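WP5 quarterly update. Target: Glyoxylate reductase/hydroxypyruvate reductase. Source organism: Circinella minor. Length: 327 aa.
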Amino acid sequence: HSNARVLAPKVVATRVLPQHAQARLKEQDFELVQWPEDSLMPRDKLLSDIKGAEGLLCVLGDKIDKELLEAAGPNLKVVTTMSVGYDHIDLATAKKNNIKVGYTPDVLTDATADLTVLLTLAAARKMKQGIRAAENGEWREWRPNWLCGYQFAGKTLGMVGMGRIGQAVANRLRAFGVNRVLYWGRSEKPELKGQAEFASMDQLLKESDYVVACCALTPETKELFDYEAFKKMKDTAIFANSARGAVVKQEDLVRALQENLIAGAGLDVTTPEPLPTDHPLFKLDNCVILPHIGSATIEAREVMGDICIDNITSGLKNEKLRCELNY
Ligand code: DGY
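Structure tokens (predicted):
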């Protein structure tokens, strides 16, 4: 028995990683089963490949539910997602089966905060209409009343979710002149005393010029932004969401924008994703939509890939993960 061959553990990866991370992934001494296309791994393929796997590297389009975790069988030790969000993972089942869960916080904070600011600015300054006008011949002589939006100096920002990304957004917008920051979230953060005020959702909605969602999707935040919420906002308010589409009741947002209850919206996330191209949100001039690219910088994505590899290798050895979710 002493020289019996030890089988390499099987690891399933549902995507190809960024260049350098991918090269490193290939060098690992586990048996790698990887979906080679730049697209969602088909569910039935994932369900069959996962059988007997000890590690799973996934992304947020993959549904890591009870069915999948159970299809893996008892060997599965670690699941890592290449994202900071983990609402696509059934944590109750993972816990029950003693599976470690890894994710990629911190390294995408700057990228996501930058993009959130871009969306906020774009919505405030009517960038969608501006680009379209420039391209399609609507651009005429300089006109005093044309495409006027809003600026930031002296304004109030309301952050829904004041974690790493929320704080990074607030810091950036302070540099643009925002002089008051309200925030709502699970709990007050004593370390923010003097910089930002913990507020009720009601107060935040009523008093903010910019309302920005950077929260996790949880039962408490699901469809938090409904018609009632938009009605409470100023009619000059700009709403931005780089969190998850489901924090918004989307048909209510459509209505709010159509009725000019708010001035504009910038979205990096929608329901569903991709948003069908004939969706009413695309028809609205006052809604800027990007295709979930908050963390899409070369820098962030390479480190996200790297962390996933480290999470897998530690998980296979039953060691603490580089970025392990405490749940
Ligand atoms: C995340 O990390 O959760 C984003 O949605 C994708 O980077």
